[in-house]
Amino acid sequence: MISRDLATELASLLTWTPANGDQFFIPRPEISESVFTLSDMVVELVTAYDETRFHFNGTVEWALDSVESDAVVWLPREDQLRDLLGSWFLSLDASAAGYEVTVSGPGRAFHTSPEADAADAYGRALLYVLRQAAVTAS
């Protein structure tokens, strides 16, 4: 799973369309260690009157009825991060030092530093691509 710090860095650069199976955390000190999985049975996505909220059903989090979607941080999976890299993705390499992702740009090829988790390597590469795209667009 992608690290919380990296997910937080990516959050302002990504548009998230929540779907079943997605995971997120709520960056509030009293609950920030919990990871929630979006599911119709437990954490339901409800959109009404142009507002998106997550409703907590049952007794999983009895003290939490709902939270606005912009108050949570998405924890994208490895496959989602790879998909977001799209045609910029060139390779994922594993070594004793960790996982490294190479992307084609924008601008130039970029290699992540070794990461213990492949998802973090994908996330670092995506962060690079999104930041470079923002600079190029300016």
Structure description:
- There is one protein chain.
- With 138 residues, the chain is of the alpha+beta class.
- The chain has 2 domains: 17-74, no CATH class; 78-137.
- Helix content is 26%, strand content 27%.
- The protein is built from 3 helices and 9 strands.
- The strands form 3 sheets. A 3-stranded antiparallel beta sheet has the order 2-1-6, covered by helices on one side. Strands 3-4-5 form a 3-stranded antiparallel beta sheet, with no helix packed on it. Strands 7-8-9 form a 3-stranded antiparallel beta sheet, covered by helices on one side.
- α2 (78-85) runs parallel beside α3 (118-137).
Q: Concise description?
A:
With 138 residues, this protein is α+β, with helices and mostly antiparallel strands.
Beta strand %? 25-35%
**Tally of alpha and pi helices:** 3
The gross shape turns out to be globular
Average of the residue pLDDT scores: 88
The total of beta strands comes to 9
Number of domains: 2
Distance between the termini: 32 Å
Element string (H = helix, E = strand): HEEEEEEHEEEH
Rg from alpha-carbon coordinates: 17 Å
What is the spatial order of strands in the main beta sheet? Answer: 2-1-6
Biggest sheet: strands, sense, closure? 3 strands, antiparallel
Structural class: alpha+beta
Helix content: 25-40%
